[in-house]
Amino acid sequence: MTLPIPNSPTSSASPETPASPTAASDASKDSNSTTGSSPTTHPNGQPIKRKASRRANTAERRATHNAVERARRETLNGRFLDLAALLPNLSQIRRPSKSAIVNSSIAHIHAARRHRLLAARELRLLKLESDALRRELNEWRDRAGLPRVEEPMRSEGFSIVASGEVEVLPVPTGEDSEEDEE
């Protein structure tokens, strides 16, 4: 879209450029004196080409934006491929679709959650059985006059897994932290 330059004699696509710096200053004095608008020359006497600089600036900004967007897409596509390589059913496929990667990721997370809940239930049952056996052992040891067997020390992770809560993963350090900015 072409916009006319205010106070210009024509509304053509390119502004007229005076032949000499003195002619440019004379032309800017004439246009400034009649309308009181801002000066059309730099302090060094060169004429300001507003339309050309706007176009160049817009084209430059568009090119920069396109390059940034292309880099973002390439990074995102690379991360999709990294995710696909981590999924057991997609690790052998060369270029799975993004939809297949997302769907497989969701299925894998649901399966892992089910397995974790089953493992937590199994761990709780084993702990109950261990406690019952320890109680029985301690009854026999009390009858025999032997010292009791105490419950073993367990880590915080044991109680987290046994309760079926969300697993706690260590925070990775290094280059992966930059994806959190998006």
From TrEMBL:
Keyword Lipid metabolism: no
One GO CC term, this protein: RNA polymerase II transcription regulator complex
Matches recorded under InterPro entries: bHLH_dom, HLH_DNA-bd_sf
Biased composition (Low complexity): 8-26
Sequence ranges of Polar residues compositional bias: 30-44
Molecular functions (GO terms): DNA binding; DNA-binding transcription factor activity; protein dimerization activity
SMART domains with a match to the protein in the record: HLH
Domain BHLH: 60-112
UniProt keyword annotations, A-Z: Activator, DNA-binding, Nucleus, Transcription, Transcription regulation
Region (Disordered) residue spans: 1-68
Sequence ranges of Basic and acidic residues compositional bias: 57-68
Pfam families from the UniProt entry: HLH
GO biological process terms, semicolon-separated: positive regulation of transcription by RNA polymerase II
PANTHER family reported in the protein's UniProt record: PROTEIN MAX, PROTEIN MAX MYC-ASSOCIATED FACTOR X
Protein name per the record: BHLH domain-containing protein
Organism: Neolentinus lepideus HHB14362 ss-1
